[in-house]
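Thread: guanosine-5'-triphosphate complex, take 2
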Amino acid sequence: MCDTCGCQTNNQNSDTRLIDINKSLLEANNAIASKNREHIEKMGAVAINLISSPGAGKTTLLEKTADMATNLFHFCVIEGDIETERDAERIRAKGIPAIQLTTGGACHLDAPLVHKGLHKLEDEISTTPFQILFIENVGNLVCPAAFDLGEHKRVVMVSVPEGSDKPAKYPRAFLGSDLFLITKIDLLDYFDFSIEEATECAKRINPKIRVMSVSAKTGQGMDKWIAYLQNLID
Ligand SMILES: Nc1nc2c(ncn2[C@@H]2O[C@H](COP(=O)(O)OP(=O)(O)OP(=O)(O)O)[C@@H](O)[C@H]2O)c(=O)[nH]1
Ligand SMILES: [Mg+2]
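Output below.
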């Protein structure tokens, strides 16, 4: 079981108290998430929570977004990882303000930690106004789906090497997401990934979810991603 969110509570008959703790933890999280949302709106920005398995391409997508968004909009990034400053350093190398949150073992970000990140962003980092705040969650398709961080939109990503069955196997991440981004499509020739199957699966879980496919390596599909972002801030 996950120490922090207690997400594996299948054996409900044997430990109902455990479920109560889980519920109150999520309620407390959600109250702070609402405050985070207000805070971000006061900053004049919309927040996007990026959720995927480890290595699906979240940071690479943000690096490519930085290359393409120069004259279109400003953005900042809150990076979430279990350990290291590596992803924030990659984003900063692109000239984008970024702070790193490390969870010290927890497999997801939560609203209190993001609240600290917002203050750090305001106090130490961001000098120019920005329109989008990306929150790159810890690589994990399970626990992050349970935690509202105060985002306005949630984007779930699955990369081609992971397989098109992922929406069916990790439905909760798709249920609350606005956009399903299929990444690394430059690898389609080498894997048995079906965009059609993945799309059908995701839409069965969440009929309103939008679906786009991109390669941050070749740039294919990135224009639609950038248009999606611009549309959010117009
Ligand atoms: N071929 C290909 N490789 C990619 C693409 N996007 C990312 N990668 C590679 O995938 C690996 C992981 O990319 P990251 O961007 O670090 O993935 P991440 O989701 O941020 O990983 P975590 O933060 O550890 O969860 C790197 O080696 C990238 O170069 C893509 O569009 N095509
Ligand atoms: Mg990353």
